[in-house]
Design brief:
2 strands; 2 domains; about 190 residues; binds glutathione; mainly alpha; Glutathione S-transferase Yfyf (Class Pi), Chain A, domain 2
């Protein structure tokens, strides 16, 4: 979602090919043997990480200054999200793969690691990096969305008012809604 949103925001024209993860096409594995999505292929280079796709897209065009941030703080957020929070998200999403873990304890760890720090940041400012939306918000909210969706009722009961409005705002944004839609194969 973060890669799709950045490509759309930067108005990059590309062909979207949805991958069936259980049946990855040879044409994909030939350019990216590690076999994860997303993969972005262009003339002369291949990007195999969603963050790399975001960064490349923003380097082409960044009309609203998504990348105008304190890069050190930005990277710390993304690292915390893609590292420890992603581990907790997977544990929370797939409890039967982790029978040794109590879901409520995983939730507590996620609160400490990510959800409460986000809540604290958003108490002071409208977005993670300040008063304007940045690539950090866009890189992170899809993961928070997934976390929230596991048990919406439990999530809504948490004292995370600022996080919840930030998330809702992103989920209702035209950009997110436009990339959520089922894909025709060409984008413009
Ligand atoms: N660090 C990578 C992670 C990508 C990733 O884990 N993608 C998952 C789907 S969201 C995947 O392709 N898994 C391979 C599989 O399930 O076979 C990125 O951000 O691009």
């Amino acid at each position: 979602m973060r890669a799709r949103m950045a490509l759309k925001y930067a108005d990059i024209k590309y062909e979207h090919r949805e991958i069936e993860l259980r049946n990855k096409p040879q044409s994909m594995l030939a350019i990216s043997p590690k076999g994860t999505v997303p993969v972005f292929a262009s003339a002369g280079f291949v990007l195999e990480q969603s963050m790399d796709i975001m960064r490349w897209a923003l380097a082409q065009s960044d009309p609203e200054g998504w990348a105008v941030v304190d890069e050190q703080v930005a990277q710390a957020w993304v690292k915390r999200n893609d590292g420890p929070f992603k581990v907790l998200l997977d544990q929370y999403k797939y409890p039967n793969r982790h029978p040794e873990l109590k879901q409520e304890e995983v939730l507590q760890r996620a609160l400490e690691e990510m959800l409460l720090p986000i809540e604290k940041a958003l108490k002071e400012q409208q977005y993670l990096m300040g008063s304007r939306l940045s690539y950090v918000d866009v890189a992170i909210f899809p993961f928070i969305r997934q976390f929230a969706m596991v048990d919406r009722y439990r999530f809504d009961s948490l004292s995370l008012g600022h996080l919840q409005s930030w998330l809702d705002q992103q989920l209702q944004s035209e950009l997110f809604l436009s990339v959520m839609h089922k894909y025709p194969s060409w984008h413009d």
